[in-house]
Specification:
By secondary structure, the protein is of the alpha/beta class. Strands 3-2-1-4-5-6 form a 6-stranded parallel beta sheet, sandwiched between helices. It has a 3-stranded mixed beta sheet with strand order 7-8-9. It has a two-stranded antiparallel ribbon with strand order 10-11. Helix 9 crosses helix 12.
Length: about 325
């Protein structure tokens, strides 16, 4: 199988935060990109960046032999797979880059294989802000020859791409990564709470923790927002409860003990996600979250507003925190 080259257009289905950034980086690298999204606003943004727009997944697949898929829900993936399979096209390589349950990916792979196509399981490690600057890592799994052939495309929008072998290993690795990312998010927010309630300056907390042994990539990405009490931009979007729940399913599947993600879903689930997009009440030492529109304009994606409890929304970093109900230090 020959490597992908710039004579063949690359398809991108799902032009949200991740897919849109990936498409723009491909264009900047000299690739011809054809995109599709059900959200007209996303399509307009992509078209302005030089991405050609197709009216549907089947129409896109007619023109692009290699197709990158970044979608918000398994239902969107299965609908896309049905459209491509029903089009009766020559062999296409579809790269599924979302984080879904492994069963959903296996079902999609079987459907495309039956139609003569190849599905690769290639979830991505990185945030929307990282996607803009090609600071992504691809966990590729599936047909080895297709992964090798796609290396020039992967190099156009990521800093690393790894072949993990059998289909599904990419998702398994993403579950491992998501476990750590979610825990680092929660731990970072609680560390800021501890420091702020102790009277420390939040910007100094960020600077000194970043310089020492307690830092992490997640802390360095999201810590500035916590320090500045600013929760906007692409770094803030993360489907915490969904990703943890899918990872917890993986623990059950592989009979691995993992108490922290179970506790996060069971204890913090209602606080993390709220109901029907409503902003939930905050509790001490927990993250605040609210429903938000995500990739493809789908409201099921959850945006993690890493709100440090005890700080008034919009307050300046140097402003004194609200007085805690319980005295500092806590007696327990």
């Amino acid at each position: 199988m020959r490597n992908a080259n710039r004579e063949d257009p690359v398809g991108v289905i799902g032009l949200g935060i991740m897919g849109g950034a990936i498409g723009r980086n491909l264009v900047a690298d000299g690739w011809r990109v054809i995109g599709h999204d059900i959200d007209a606003a996303r399509c307009a943004e992509a078209e302005a960046a030089g991405i050609e727009i197709a009216q549907g997944a089947a129409q896109l697949a007619e023109r692009a032999p290699n197709i990158l898929v970044s979608l918000p829900t398994p239902q969107a993936l299965h609908a896309t797979v049905r459209d491509i399979a029903a089009a009766r096209l020559p062999r296409r390589v579809v790269v599924e880059m979302s984080t879904f349950a492994l069963d959903d990916k296996i079902q999609a792979e079987q459907a495309l294989r039956a139609a003569g196509h190849v599905l690769l399981d290639c979830p991505i490690s990185g945030t929307g802000a990282q996607a803009k600057v090609k600071d992504l890592v691809i966990y590729a799994s599936g047909e080895h020859a297709s992964i090798v052939a796609l290396e020039p495309i992967f190099a156009a929008f990521s800093r690393q791409a790894h072949d993990l072998g059998a289909f599904g290993n990419g998702t398994r690795m993403k579950f491992v990564a998501n476990l750590l990312v979610a825990i680092h998010n929660v731990a970072s927010a609680e560390a800021f709470v501890l420091g702020i309630k102790a009277g420390l300056d939040p910007k100094q907390i960020f600077e000194l923790i970043s310089a020492g042994a307690g830092t992490s990539r997640v802390f360095e990405l999201r810590g500035p927002m916590m320090a500045e009490n600013r929760y906007d931009g692409d770094n803030v979007t993360m489907r915490v409860k969904t990703d943890l729940a899918e990872g917890h399913d993986g623990h059950r599947r592989f009979r691995a003990r993992a108490g922290l993600p179970h506790a996060a879903v069971q204890r913090d689930g209602p606080d993390l996600c709220g109901r029907d997009g409503e902003r939930p009440r905050r509790r001490r030492h927990r993250l605040g979250m609210r429903g938000a529109r995500g990739d493809g304009g789908n409201p099921e994606t959850v945006s993690s507003h890493l709100v440090v409890p005890g700080r008034r929304p919009g307050s300046s970093p140097g402003q004194a925190p609200r007085r805690a109900r319980n005295p500092w230090p806590p007696s327990q």
